[in-house]
Amino acid sequence: MNLTEITSPPAAAYPVRALADHLRLGTGFADDGSQDALLEAYLVAAIAAVEARTGKVILERDYLWEIARWHSGDRQGLPVAPVQAVNAVSLIDFEGGETLIDAGRYRLRPDGLRPELVAGVLPAIPHNGMVRIAFTAGYGPVWEDAPADIRQAVLLLAAHYYEYRSIDGAEREMPFGVSQLLARFQTLRLTGDRL
Questions:
Q1: What gap in Å lies between CA 168 and CA 170, rounded to an integer?
Q2: Which NCBIfam families match (predicted)?
Q3: Which of 97, 106, 156, 193 is most buried when burial is the number of CB atoms within 10 A of its CB?
Q4: Residue-wise pLDDT tens digits, 156-189
């Protein structure tokens, strides 16, 4: 199982000014904006940590996901949520040959926690081959598309990283308040099978 991010959010999508306001950084000085690159780096890190904890993609982007077997014959859970569109499904044989599956043979079942690719019968994966699923995931292309509590958790975590930036390895755990904000977005998995 291999999940690859194909596109990244543009730099303008990161809420650098919102984080600066949250941190109460001064404005109107000659060096106004001098911390922007650092703030963006902590936002990227905080978003990555929140996405890893919740399985939710905050800013919309494209992914490729490769798997060697289906979870069941008629449905396959997708690794992140929310998924906006399944763009292509291809079968890859042992020698690397690719066969595009007709989009009429499957559909996306959207779900905020666990979206699925569903079909009457999913196509057979070639022996020693895999299936490659191209999809777009994320709450939307802009920061305001994400739920308010996820946005607040990201700002709190980025601020935490900023405040403890000079301490090597210390205080890198997710703060309790951030964990509480994210708790309702985490998917409980009882079977041991993530998807």
A1: 6
A2: phage_chp_gp8, put_DNA_pack
A3: 106
A4: 999 999 988 877 655 567 888 899 999 888 876 5
Q: Which long-range contacts (CB under 8 A, 24 or more apart) does 174-178 make?
A: 174/49, 174/53, 178/50, 178/153
Residue closest to 84 by CA, chosen among 50, 48, 60, 104: 60
The tokens for 157 are 């975590």
Sorted by sequence, the CB contacts under 8 Å of residue 18 that are 6+ apart come out as 143, 155
The reply to whether 5 falls in a domain is no
* Same domain, yes or no: 85 and 124: yes
The pLDDT of residue 28 is above 80 = no
Domain that holds residue 107: 61-137
Where residue 26 falls among pLDDT bands split at 50, 70, 90? low
| Structure tokens belonging to residue 170 | 């210390």
Whole-model pTM? 0.86
- pLDDT score of 20 more than 60: yes
45: in domain: yes
8 A C-beta contact, residue 66 and residue 132: yes
- The helix-helix angle for 36-54 and 148-163 (nearest 10°) equals 120
The single residue listed with the structure tokens 């905050």 is 58
Residues 122 and 168 in one domain: no
Examine the pLDDT at 190 and tell me if it is beyond 90. no
CA-CA distance, 86 to 137, in Å (whole number)? 9
